[in-house]
């Protein structure tokens, strides 16, 4: 039987790392016992999509922003690799791809012939989803494989607002 591929999208959010940990705990066995190859993909936004800069110094500003985006990307994939090491997962490939996360994830599914795509949910409300777009919703509708959207459980009320837990 050919090795199956799981692509998981990670960004710097806790939601994405929760999705990675949840998936590792439930689907991927440690060491070499797993029938899956894991591909961790981080979509790095191009500097020009973050800010619009024109005039003198624009190239410098974009260069500095790109360096910062590279640092974030490297830190993000390193954290993802560390989580895999903690779970004793060895069969991992990591990719940093510049572009919109929705397209990057769907392209990764095609590139690696993935059986499943795993993404975390930020639990945005309707307004934020309309403004920012939902990567998980886009992938669920456009990826050519099964898509697992991992939602982080809500925090208990006493963790959300410590004032409420102190009332008598």
UniProtKB/TrEMBL annotation:
UspA domain: residues covered: 5-151
InterPro entries per the UniProt record, alphabetical: Rossmann-like_a/b/a_fold (IPR014729), Universal_stress_UspA (IPR006015), UspA (IPR006016)
PANTHER family hit by this protein: ADENINE NUCLEOTIDE ALPHA HYDROLASES-LIKE SUPERFAMILY PROTEIN
Protein's name according to its UniProt entry: Universal stress protein PHOS34-like
Name of the gene: LOC111009340
